[in-house]
Design brief:
Chains A, B: It catalyses: acetate + ATP + CoA = acetyl-CoA + ADP + phosphate. Two copies of one chain form a homodimer. Chain A is an alpha/beta fold. Chain A folds into two domains: 209 residues, 3-Layer(aba) Sandwich (Rossmann fold), CATH 3.40.50; 164 residues, Succinyl-CoA synthetase domains (Rossmann fold), CATH 3.40.50.261. In chain A, 41% of the residues lie in helices and 19% in strands. In chain A, the strands form five sheets. Chain A has a seven-stranded mixed β-sheet with strand order 9-8-11-10-12-13-14, sandwiched between helices. In chain A, strands 15, 16, 17, 18, 19 and 20 form a six-stranded parallel β-sheet that branches. In chain A, helix 5 links the parallel strand 10 and strand 11. In chain A, helix 13 packs parallel to helix 14. The radius of gyration of chain A is 25 Å and the shape is elongated. At the A-B interface, helix 5, helix 8, helix 11 and helix 15 of A face helix 5, helix 8, helix 11 and helix 15 of B.
C-alpha cells in the first residue's frame, strides 16, 4: 500500500463524502477550498440527498453513494457523522479508492469504545488495500497539485516546507499564520488520531518528494517511537526535520498527559532521541517557523565562514552576540574582508561584522552583497538593515533578490530588517521570493545557526 | 537647571533653527512632524534666508535669527550645519531659551576636535542656564503634549512607555516598529552624544512623569556609570526600566568597542550593575518590547497565583512549559478552579492550565475570564486562544477588552492568539487598548514573568 501515499498528495480525482450545499458546513468548506485553490483533477461530491452544490457559480451534481460515481476515485475525503463512517469506508473499498482522509471526529479521542471502532475501520480499509489519514483531522494540502482538501484557510502560500500537525485546532491556526507570515508550504497534513498513516509514513513520503525541502512537525506524542526515530534519522540525512513538542517541564508534561494521554516524564527520552536522529527541536512556534524559513529555502553552507553586513553598528553587535552564542564562526581574514572598504565611507569598518554605516545606500549594499556572494571563502551571509531615510527597505529587498538570484543561490543568505511598515513590506517581499527575512537580527542569525546545526550533524553521520 | 527638562517635554513654544521649505530636508521634516502630530504650542521656524515654509497648506513666516522671534521660546531645535552651531547656541542663550535639542552631527562622534567644540557648546549653554540634548540626534517626542520634534516617523501611538535611544538609526527604526506593532509611547528621546542631558537625567524626569509607566533604553554605553546605576536603582523602585545593551559576547563587545568607543570586556560589570539596580536586561529588541507592553500597561500582581485559560491543549502546555521555566506559580486550588467547569464541556479540564476545549465560544471565554478576574486568589491571568471557526478572534478581543475594563484592570492580564490575519487584527485591537497581546503563548508568559521579576525585586528592596 506504499503507493497510496502518492494518491494522498497527487490524487487524479477526489470524492467528498458528506459534501454539503450549505456555507458554514465542513462538507461545504472542503468543496470550496478544493475549487478555490484550483485543484485540477475531478471533484465528485457525495451527498445522501443528492443535492446540487454551487461554488462560485460552478455547479456540482452530487451522487447519493460513492458507488454511483461513474469514474475512478483516488481519494475520498469523509465528512459524515462517525456512526456512518464504517459503512462509507466499506463502500469506498468496493469502489477501489486508494486513500481516505477521515475528517469526522468521535473515535479514539473519546475513549476505548471509539478506539475499537477506529481499529475496525482500519481493518476494513486495509482489506481493500486502502490507507486512512485520521480520523479527527482537518484535511490535507499539497500545493504542487493545487490541492487544498481542508476546511482551514484557503490561500496557502506555495513553497518547500511540509507541515504536519497532530493538533487540529493548532494546525488550522498555524495554516493561517503561514499565510500571514509568508511561509511557503509544499504540504499541510493533519494526522489527528493517526489510526493508520502516521508521522513516519509521511516522513518517508517527503524524503523523496522533490517539492519538499524541510519538514515541520507539531507533535504531542508518537505511538511507535522506535520506528519514528529510525525513519527520522534516515530522513534527516536528506532533509531537515523540525519538531515542536510541548511538555518539556514537569507541569507541562502533566498537562500534556491529561490532554493527549501521552506519558508524562517521557520528555527526556524524546529529547535524547531527537538529538540522535538529527531532529531540530524548536521550543516555540515562532522559533520553529523562523528555522523552517531558512531550512526549507537555502542550500547548505560549504564552510563555516559567516559574513555579517550591516548599516547599523548596534544591530551588527546584536547579531555578533547571537552568532557567538550559537557557535557560528565569523570570517576573520582581513585581506579578503578589505574588499568591503570599497562600499563604505572612511569611518566604516570592514572588520566582520562589516559596518557599511548609516550612510549606506543602494550602491553600497549592492556592491557589498555582490562581493560577499562572489567570494568562495565567504560561505554564508547575513544582510542586516536598520531602516533609514537613505534607502527604502523595499529597494534593499529588490537589490538582495536580484543579486542572490544572479549568483545562482549557491550559498545561504539571510536578511534582517528593523523598521516600520516599509520594513515589514520588504520582509514580506523577500520571504515571498524564498529568501528568509526577519524583523530582528538575532532571529536571522539563529535560523542560520539551525541550518549549520543540521548540516554539521549530517556531515558527522557520513563520517561514521 | 532641573526645571529645563520640563521644557524638553512640555515646551510652550518651539523654534526650529535651520527650518527648511524643502521636503526631503531634515529642517522640513521636523516642521512637518510638529504640525502633523498636532503640537498645540507656538512654532517659530528660523531660517537665515527668511523663507516662507508651507506645511499642509499652513504657512509659516520664518525669522532670520531666533533673536527676531517676538515671543518667549522654551525649546529650540537646532538643525544647522555643525560650524554654525556655536553661534546659534549663543543667540539662543541671549533669547532665554530653556532647552536645545541639537540634531546637527559632526561633533564628538568624529573625534577629539569635535569633542572639544561639544564641550564649548555645553559651557555656553550652561552659562545661560540652558540644557542641551545631543548633539547628533533625531529629536524628541512627548505624546501627552502632542509633540513630535523628530525627523522620524510621524504617527507615534500614544501610550505609557518612554523610549530612550543612544543610536539614531536604530532609534528611528524602532519608532517605526512601535507604530507597526502598536506599542504605545509616552516619549521618544534620542540622546546621541549625551554631551549634557544623559540617561540618568531622563530617568529622573520619567520617575515622576504621570504619563510614563515604564522606560526602555537602547544603550551602547554610559559615561558616568556610577550615577546611572544609582539613579536607575531609585527609579526602579517606582517604575520598571528595561535595557537593551548589545555586546554580551567577546566578539560582540569588541565590535561595540570599535563602533562606540565604549570599553570591551565591561559587559560583566554592566550585567551585575543592572541586576543590582532592578533593571531588566532584554537580550533582543523583540524581547524588550514584549516586556515593555506588559510593564507599561499592567498593574503589579498582588500575589503569585497565575491562571492560564486556553481553548487548545497544545498551546496550554506550551504556556505551562514557559511558566515553569520562568518560575511562575500556576494556581493549584482545585476548589477555586472548579468554577471553570461551568464554561466547558465534560471533556474539558479545569486543572490549571484550564482547557476550555476547541469548542469554546464567546460565552465560554466571557464566563471564564470574568470568573478569573473576580476571584481574589487568582492574581494574574493569561488568556490563550488558538483561532477556530467557533469564535472569531476579533470577537474574543472585544470580550477581553470589555471584561477587563469592567473589572477595573486591577490585576495583570496578558493575551496570546495564534492564527492568521483575523488573529493579527485581534492582537492589534488589544494592544491599542493597552492590553498586552502576543502571537505566541510563550511570549505572553515571559512578559508576565518580567513583570513578576520587577515586582519581586521591588518588594525585596522594601524589606531591606
Amino acid at each position: 500500500m506504499e503507493g497510496n501515499l502518492e494518491a494522498l498528495f497527487r490524487p487524479k480525482s477526489i470524492a467528498v463524502i458528506g459534501a454539503s450545499e450549505k456555507p458554514g458546513k465542513i462538507g461545504y468548506a472542503i468543496m470550496r477550498n478544493l475549487v478555490e485553490y484550483g485543484y485540477e483533477g475531478k471533484i465528485y461530491p457525495v451527498n445522501i440527498k443528492g443535492v446540487e452544490i454551487e461554488i462560485n457559480g460552478r455547479k456540482f451534481k452530487s451522487y447519493k453513494s460513492i458507488l454511483d460515481v461513474p469514474d475512478e476515485v483516488d481519494m475520498a475525503v469523509i465528512v459524515v457523522p462517525a456512526k456512518f463512517v464504517p459503512q462509507v469506508v466499506e463502500e469506498a473499498g468496493k469502489k477501489g479508492v486508494k486513500v481516505l482522509p477521515i475528517i469526522s471526529s468521535g473515535f479514539g479521542e473519546l475513549g476505548e469504545e471509539g478506539k475499537k471502532v477506529e481499529r475496525q475501520i482500519v481493518e476494513t480499509a486495509h482489506r481493500y488495500g486502502m490507507r486512512i489519514l485520521g480520523p479527527n483531522i482537518f484535511g490535507v494540502v499539497y500545493t504542487p497539485a493545487k490541492m487544498n482538501a481542508t476546511f482551514g484557510p484557503t490561500d496557502v502560500m506555495p513553497g518547500n516546507l511540509a507541515l504536519i500537525s497532530q493538533s487540529g485546532a493548532l494546525g488550522i491556526a498555524l495554516m493561517g499564520w503561514t499565510i500571514l507570515e509568508k511561509v511557503g508550504l509544499s504540504a499541510v497534513v493533519s494526522v489527528g488520531n493517526k489510526s493508520d498513516i502516521d508521522d513516519a509514513d509521511l516522513l518517508e513520503f517527503f524524503k523523496t518528494d522533490d517539492n519538499t525541502k524541510a519538514i515541520l512537525i507539531y507533535m504531542e506524542g508518537v505511538k511507535d517511537g522506535r520506528r519514528f526515530m529510525e525513519v527520522a534519522r534516515e530522513v534527516s540525512k536528506e532533509k531537515p526535520i523540525i519538531i515542536i513538542k510541548a511538555g518539556r517541564s514537569e507541569r507541562g508534561a502533566k498537562a500534556a498527559a491529561s490532554h493527549t494521554g501521552s506519558l508524562a516524564g517521557a520528555d527526556k527520552i524524546y529529547e535524547a532521541a531527537f538529538k540522535q536522529s538529527g531532529v531540530l527541536r524548536a521550543l516555540t512556534i515562532g522559533e520553529a517557523f523562523d528555522w523552517a524559513r531558512t531550512l526549507s529555502n537555502l542550500p547548505e553552507p560549504e564552510g563555516e565562514n559567516v559574513v555579517i553586513l550591516t548599516n547599523g553598528g548596534g544591530i551588527g553587535v546584536m547579531a555578533t552576540d547571537a552568532a557567538e552564542e550559537e557557535g557560528l564562526h565569523l570570517y576573520d581574514d582581513l585581506e579578503d574582508l578589505k574588499v568591503f572598504a570599497n562600499h563604505m565611507p572612511p569611518f566604516g569598518s570592514y572588520k566582520n561584522p562589516v559596518d557599511l554605516t548609516g550612510m549606506a545606500g543602494a550602491e553600497a549594499y549592492e556592491g557589498a552583497v555582490r562581493d560577499a556572494l562572489a567570494n568562495p571563502n565567504m560561505h554564508s551571509i547575513a544582510v542586516l538593515y536598520c531602516q533609514t531615510a537613505v534607502l527604502d527597505p523595499r529597494d534593499l529587498a529588490k537589490i538582495v533578490i536580484r543579486e542572490y538570484n544572479e549568483s545562482g543561490r549557491k550559498k545561504p543568505l539571510v536578511v534582517a530588517i528593523v523598521g516600520g511598515i516599509e520594513a515589514k513590506e520588504a520582509i514580506d517581499m523577500l520571504n515571498e521570493e524564498g529568501i528568509p527575512a526577519y524583523p530582528e537580527p538575532e532571529r536571522a542569525i539563529k535560523s542560520l545557526a539551525a541550518l549549520y546545526r543540521w548540516s554539521n550533524w549530517k556531515a558527522r553521520q557520513k563520517k561514521e
